[in-house]
Amino acid sequence: MEDINPMELLRSNLSRVRIPEPTNRIYKQECCLSFDSPRSEGGLFVDMNTFLAFGKDHVAWNYEKTGNPVYLHIKQTKKLVSEDRPLKKPTLLAIGIDGGFDNNEPEYEETHNIVILPSHVTLPFPSVELPEKVRLAVDAILMAEGAERKEQVAAWTADKKQISAYAMELLQIGNVVVPPSGWKCCKCDKTENLWLNLTDGMILCGRRNWDGTGGNNHAVEHYKETGYPLAVKLGTITSDLEAADVFSYPEDDSVIDPLLAQHLAYFGIDFSSLQKTEMTTAERELDQNTNFDWNRIQESGQDVEPIFGPGYTGLVNLGNSCYMAATMQVVFSTQSFCRRYYMSQSLKMAFETAPADPTVDLNMQLTKLAHGLLSGKYSLPASKKDGTATPPVKDAKEGTATPPVKDAKQEGIPPRMFKAVIAASHPEFSTMRQQDALEFFLHFLDQVERSNAAKPELDPSRSFRFGVEERILCSSGKVAYNKRLDNILSLNIPLHEATNKQELEAFNKIKAEKMSEGKDVSNDEIVRPRVPLEACLANFVAPEEIPDFYSSALKTKTTALKTAGLTSFPDYLVLHMRKFVMEAGWVPKKLDVYIDVPDIIDISHMRSKGLQPGEELLPEAALESEAESSQPIADEAIVAQLASMGFNQLHCQKAAINTSNAGVEEAMNWLLSHMDDPDIDAPISHGAKGAEASIDQAAVDTLVSFGFQEEIARMALKASGGDIEKATDWIFNNPNASAASAMDTNTSSNSTPTQVDAGLPDGGGRYRLFGIVSHIGTSTQCGHYVAHILKDGRWVIFNDDKVAASINPPKDMGYLYFFERI
After folding, report:
1. How many C-beta neighbours within 10 Å does residue 343 have?
2. What is the phi/psi pair of residue 142, to 5°?
3. What is the value of pTM for the model shown?
4. Which residues make beta-bridge pairs with 588?
5. Is pLDDT at 742 greater than 60 in this prediction?
6. Binding-site residues, please?
7. Which residues, 6 or more positions from 559, have their beta carbon under 8 angstroms from its beta carbon?
8. Which of 233, 396, 517, 672 could be 245's S-S partner, Cβ–Cβ 3.0 to 4.6 Å?
């Protein structure tokens, strides 16, 4: 091997070198198996056949698996740059492109080499002596936009505004003269977020936001009534007309009006004299991202101590990805996920079982994320801008030799590949918009369950799963039991159980007095309700009346009483606090409330008891014969209110039906918790009898041909409305189903585990609080998420890439609470 000429060795392997085509995804910024990058000590190795990238510790694994020997080695070394380099103000909501965020990042010098494995024979690049195929391939790789960066920039870059199709021939009517200031909505008292309709000169307020802020929808309602298409936002008009915010209702987007000056002049508006007083939509988004600051979120102003080491690795914010970061930090603080993707599975094991492209394999990317978060490899103080290193800090579990610098921080790891995989089946999570942490958590558990379907005994998501049993007591004295599985316990907040009612009453009086005097209440004076968590749990199991319940025993509608309990207690119990309610006028509102959460809770009293001696079940046969008449019908008023908020009509009907038409608030809570249900878009079933009658024998025969018993096939088709694919999923999701347990699709006759809750973890009802995901903002779709986790006997705050010892964890402000069974 010593006598082999490196160039001859390269030529002998030219068949394994490919010149990338425009459609090829090229990875050159991050290792597929770890978070190593060109800036890491060993640089990055790009496979010149598959264009996948590997760190120095993993490139040999790829050679063993694929036999591909030729790699482009990329190494970046930091340049020494003056610390007072001026910051560039961003003009575009983008990262890493002209006009985007700069943030005074250090500059790096990049070097390239051709490396041939297994002996790591190295040839410099560029070099005219290299074969032309290699030179062309390397040039194409270096010139191409990296797959990681391409996805990031595409998601961040705002869409370029188009010229409106309605602008050139816009009709203008009336003789309205718009004053240069002092505007107010023509239909209400709003003086902000005002839009001038460019056809008739009407000044109206903008859309109502989810949280009730914003306008009152008068501008969009005016368009629906008149069809007048264009409006300009008052306060954004200056001599720079291109910066004005013009919206086209029929095109449902911000647009360019080339004749805006002419259209404004019609209403007597001299745009050159106007001063800008309102932000455009894009500017507001830029401002929010630019001004985000650690000191504005929880524990702001606290002198927190940064922590480094295994289990204390931050996650880089990829752009409104804090919902994911907070959730995953808590998830990987559980033994079940640590064991599955870290302690019991090495990176090499995951890579060996991964498909040809490991970037699209959830098992691989979860293992990569677990090792990135838990190994401590990337939890180190970041280097300072001048190139000197931050004083070393020992592993958090070993103690700190010297106090860390107060502003020391870590770079964190960017979970780009994990996000791309987990978002593949959920388009919303692939965007840069803020998302609901609860919705992400449920989607994540669903994807983990699916990826472990071949070996369910390895599925760590089962540690969160539990059974819920609802008991319905008919006025006839007979009962029915329904069971379901869940991963979270969603709790209403009974404000009437507040423990500080006297203080609240006094505060409300002061508030009313100040409002009558035109004064605002300061933040220091605000008193918020304090509700014990025990009251929320008691509310869950409290009896609830069901009006218009069809009794198969009485053969008529009556009032029934429903109670709920848990059939099993999970290893990890997640409590979701329903802080979003409907206030007067059907406006969604976030409850400004504190929940007093103890460190230890006991839910033993919440265990369901099943059918008791002496209880008689409602007749199932009668239920089937009366299925058509007992089929619930959605309250149209509830459906209309939900639909007006933008929800799907079918989803609204299901929400009303599944909450027994209890009200808009209950229906909305159900809807937000079931948006990801696999059957959310399935037609509404018309009862057991109809399902039974519609079962196609051919469908039964098809399932039997797959090896399933005929009785099981009929049960599955009945439960899935006759759909073969859904029936197959039902069978796999209910492996212990039997013909004898068919009653569980309607009623259950005892408390022993059935196919609904068989095999679930179970134990005592005492739990210890170990994780909190809190939310700052008026809506789950905006604001910021932060995690607080109990680690090694102390609370730690995880705020994206910032990890520090918590001084005052917000136990009373949580959105999601995570408990572990004692």
Report:
1. 11
2. -70, -35
3. 0.69
4. 582
5. no
6. 185, 188, 205, 218
7. 475, 545, 546, 547, 548, 549
8. 233
Label the pairing between strands 784-791 and 794-799: antiparallel
Enter the tokens of residue 302.
């606290």
- Angle, alpha carbons 164-167-170 (nearest 5°): 145
Q: Which two tokens stand for residue 740?
A: 């004898």
Cα Dmax for the chain:
96
Residue with tokens 């401590």: 376
775 is catalytic: no
Whether the Cβ atoms of residue 621 and residue 747 lie closer than 8 Å to each other: no
Among candidate residues 58, 775, 784, 788, the one labeled active-site is 784
785, two tokens: 């998420």
Contacts for 540-544: CB closer than 8 Å, 24+ residues apart: 540/489, 540/491, 540/492, 540/564, 540/606, 541/565, 541/605, 541/606
Q: How many other C-beta atoms lie within 10 A of the C-beta of residue 54?
A: 25
Q: Which two tokens stand for residue 382?
A: 């970041």
Can the peptide bond before residue 118 be classed as cis, meaning omega within 30 degrees of 0?
yes
The full length of the chain comes to 822
Q: How far is CA 325 from CA 146, 272, 447, 576, 773, in A?
A: 23, 46, 17, 18, 10
The CA-based angle 121-125-126, given to 5 degrees, is: 155
Q: Is 739 exposed, middle or buried (0-12, 13-18, 19+ CB in 10 A)?
A: exposed
Per-residue pLDDT, 539: 94
The pLDDT tens digits of the residues spanning 69-119 come to 999 999 999 887 665 555 555 554 444 445 555 545 678 899 999 999 999
CA distance 575 to 490: 6
Token code pair at residue 111: 């070097």
Binding residues for Zn(2+): 185, 188, 205, 218
If you write DSSP's letter for every residue of 166-182 in order, what string do you get? Answer: TSTT----S-----SS-
- DSSP states of 151-170: HHHHHHSPPPPEE-TTSTT-
Alpha carbons 91 and 651: distance in angstroms, whole number:
40
788 is catalytic: no
Q: What are the CA-CA distances from residue 307 to residues 14, 348, 690, 803, 818 (Å)?
A: 48, 29, 61, 6, 22
Backbone angles phi, psi at 407, to 5 degrees: -100, 15
Query: In Å, how far are 382, 560, 689 from 378, measured between CA atoms?
Result: 10, 58, 59
Q: How far is CA 88 from CA 91, 115, 155, in A?
A: 9, 38, 21
Query: Per the structure block, which two tokens stand in for 484?
Result: 């379901």
Measured torsion, CA atoms of residues 558, 544, 634, 685, in degrees rounded to the nearest 10 = -90
φ, ψ (nearest 5 deg) of residue 341: -110, 0
Q: How far apart are CA 57 and CA 566, in angstroms?
A: 47
pLDDT in tens, 602-638: 999 999 988 999 999 998 633 343 444 445 678 777 8
Position 620: which residue type?
E
Distance CA 13, CA 15 (A): 5
Q: Which helix (H) or strand (E) holds 576?
A: strand 572-577
Q: Exposed e or buried b for every residue in 605-615, given b needs 16+ CB within 10 A?
A: ebbbebbeeee
Type of residue at 513: E
pLDDT tens digits for range 571-587: 999 999 988 665 544 44
DSSP label at 489? E
Q: For residue 559, give the H/E element and its range.
A: strand 556-566
Q: What confidence score (pLDDT) does residue 383 get?
A: 61
Q: In angstroms, rounded to a whole number, what is the distance separating the alpha carbons of residues 606 and 243? A: 59
Cα–Cα distances (Å) from 454 to 195, 418, 570, 678, 736, in that order, read 56, 21, 22, 19, 16
How far, in Å, CA of 212 to CA of 209, rounded? 5
The residue annotated as part of the active site, out of 31, 322, 474, 536, is: 322
